Amino acid sequence: MPQPGSDVATGGLERRWAAWWRWEGMAVALRRGTALAVLLLAGCVTVPPAEVPFKLPASFVAGDAGAGGALPERWWEDFGDPRLNAFVEMALVGNPGLAQAAARARMAEAQARVRRADRLPEAGIGAGATRQRQNLAGLPLPDGLPGTDDGGVITERYDVVLDVGWELDLWGRLAALSASARADYLASTEQLRALRQSVAAQVVQMYLEIVQARAQVELSGRTVESLEEMARQITNRVDAGVASPADGALARANLESARAGLSQRREALERALRQLEVAMGSYPAGALETADSLPALPPPPRAGVPAELLARRPDVRAAELALLSAGYQLGAAQRSFLPSLSLSGSGGYSGSELSGLFSSGNLIWSIAGNILQPVFQGGRLLAQVDIAGAQRDEALHAYAETALNALAEVETALAVERLLQAREQALGESADAAEEAVRVSYNRYRQGIDPFLNVLESQQRALDGRSAHIAARHARLENRIALHLALGGGFEDGLPPPGRGSPPAGPAQ
To answer: Considering only CA atoms, which of 295, 292, 294, 296 is closest in space to residue 222?
Structure first.
């Protein structure tokens, strides 16, 4: 866990200091020496580390999904589909959302460099030249100045000056702001890593959704072909007077219903194809080629322990860094009660002739120091501390919420693994029995034993059962993807460079 607001005073101390300052007055405080003591104390007191408001178990309650070992970096390759691997790589390069996140990381890195530059002196060099005419008609001309026929005088001035300014960070306010910006930058890199993991998982999910949709279309197509043949035979029986016209109408109705279901499944396939193409940054033409059947379920990964998860998940680490940043912001706001000291200086040459400008006689310089102690700002500083404190508290609860959600995702994926396996097995056996019932019921109908309604009911159950079996298998694969995403492994070394330079270091703790 981070130590938000480390090396800063608590809000209660600042409140007492601000109230005392208002009512007793700066002059009395300085005369007694109490104000200086409070200032030094405010810069040295540290805030204890924040703790999450729940206890972590030694292991996941739902158990570990697999044996020991590191999490696979490219877990989607375990599905054994080269086209899937290629699609994931394309998405990691061309996904628009990832490009936006990378740009945000570069902006955060640049902002951190800006905050680091605030702690350093500023210097600028300037040069100027002026030529001026003054009207001195009737007055004696100064020696050495050229005059004009109408009593004017022309003067020239050349200057080359170096200006330097520096705010001394006596109490660490600028260091706290710089550390906050660095934490924000690191949080943005963790958010980028989390998004890369999410995009990879989404592509795998979309791909398997397409494969499932193709399997459902193929199942519906076979069903339509079977019902077309059955409708033809029923029509022949009706024409021969063996079956009633009602049986023929029911057969046609069942066939058209199956055709409508086939169109619906084709619609789902078209939508899924285009969603995947957009995720890869490609034009949504709906022309992707995928496998025709769902892959086998790969071996489960190692889940580890909850403490490892919180240290590994990028979204949890980003929330932790946001908490650290909010603590530094609080420290900077509290330090705004303390005096600020700035130094400035300038030096250069100034003369009336350009040829001798850099002679020793034209040397000019100045040095100045300025100290400013806030006395009265209408409660603005205290309000800023309250805002920063509330933001730090919000970041703490946001971290706890993110951590709880991460733990819940892993626990849920582990808990439902066996349930989904049992569901798939039961639905497979049910589908097999329903398909056998279609064959039996149709033979019994042709023998005049059972009514045609039994055939229709068994056909519908067979279609629904096999479709549910395919969906159950797909659900197991999706749960495996969710488990990989929940465990948060991968892309530790695969982030694109967020910008020029290295991230600035924060103040010493």
So the answer is: 292
